[in-house]
Amino acid sequence: MNTTAQIPDWAGVATSVVLVLLAASLALYQRLGVTRDLVWAGTRAFVQLLAVGALLTVLFAHAGLWGSAAWVVGMVVLAGFVAAGRAQGLPTARVSAWIAVGLGTLLTLGILLALGVVKAEPIVVVPVGGMVVSAAMSATALTMRAIAKTAIEQRPAIEARLSLGMTGAAAFAPYLREGARTALIPAIDTTKVVGLIALPGAMTGLILAGVSPFDAIRYQIVVMYMLLAAATLSSVIVARLTTSSLFDSADRLVRFDHEG
Amino acid sequence: MSEAFSFESVVLERDGRRILDGVSDHIHAGAVTAIIGDSGAGKSTMLRLFNRLEDPTSGTIRFKGEPIDSVNVHQLRKRVSLVAQTPVMLAATVLEELRIAAPELTQDRALELLGQVALADVDLDRETVTMSGGERQRLALARALTVDPEVLLLDEPTSSLDDASASAVDLVIRTLAASGLTVVLVSHDLDRVQGVADFVLVLEKGRLVERGSPEQVRYLS
Hints:
The complex is a heterodimer. Chain A is an all-alpha fold. Chain A has one domain (65-246). Chain A is built from 8 helices and no strands. Chain A has helices at residues 10-29, 35-84, 93-114, 122-153, 155-163, 168-192, 201-208, 213-246. Chain A is globular and about 70 Å long. Chain B is built from 8 helices and 10 strands. In chain B, strands 6-7-8-3-9-10 form a 6-stranded mixed sheet, with helices on both faces. In chain B, strands 2-1-4-5 form a 4-stranded antiparallel sheet, with helices on one face. The longest helix of chain B has 16 residues, at 163-178. Chain B is an alpha/beta fold. The two termini of chain B are 26 Å apart. Chain B has helices spanning 43-50, 73-79, 94-98, 107-116, 133-145, 163-178, 190-193, 214-220, and strands at 3-14, 17-28, 32-36, 58-63, 66-67, 80-83, 151-155, 182-187, 199-204, 207-212.
């Protein structure tokens, strides 16, 4: 790869702090009440990226492929926590999220690696894995949120179906499809307009690194398909897992922690 | 007269609150029993227990002599069908609504059921959103009948209806009971079930305080 990219030095990074200060000043002047949040977010991003940069440098140099795999597993665990936090008290949300993000990532990344589309090297597995986990997490969180919301709002209709002798799975089937569909809309829409509204991250990164745009799009196409697959797989898996946890052994719709 | 349900020392606690407090009695098969009480007395909860949408915290409930939790729950819910206070329409048209739990239901059987609930003049392809409250109530009754239940549980079947619609529903209930169906209905008004119910159970703050014919209960209270 031809690295003609101009990477800002630390003086350049320090200069860019002016942008945060500008945003914070504007927020203060307009009394938006988010000045502290802006400064905190900027500081936090700096520290997080510094730590990640240092860790990845060590990881790429010394940890090898297994270390990279462990890094991806760590991302899956963290993603499960984040996605479950959006689940509005769904039973077994965390375990369902871990399984969905984990399987979605394993299958997508596994196929790409097995077919040799991406190289089994730490420098590839970690960033590509990060993109897959992120897509899987987002779809998982949206699916669980949609299912929890539906289960709460549609309780009378679901119980009406159960009262007629339907199984929990059958009673929830019309809402299951809707929940998964709703969760996949952002991934599908992003794929539809890729390159038209904004240049996607992987492609932008490659172009900045000096790769020709026509070469960069090949990578981006793989990335988009990979993200679609990861989102769909995770959404379908978490929808199934979550639905079964909505009903107890006597096929009753369970009450969530914060439900009245 | 045989018993459809018998229940002994039934307690139900929800969120630390005691909804039913040691209720013991039975429901006669082939009769109309009304459970009467103020709001929060535990009436609707009794119906949910009979349909196993909830289980008691303690105590026993038997259906036709069998412990209720030993009967397959899906079979039980077909044999003991519950119609909620404000029935939710689950499909776009009348025929689709009747096929929700009985996909094989023929048009002839659908028309027959509509006749049973005094909706004979309603088209099968009519959209359910265009129906009045009384018509929806009766359509929900017909929907419950599609699974050939032995017991119908009706939660405040006439509370939100005008007098004409309420009388039509009352007549349907009496007709169904005359055909051998067991009906348990919930109401907050003793006058409302006069002429409809054969037996009345009165709940007060989760306790059973009276039982008898509507006339006996009226006299006692």
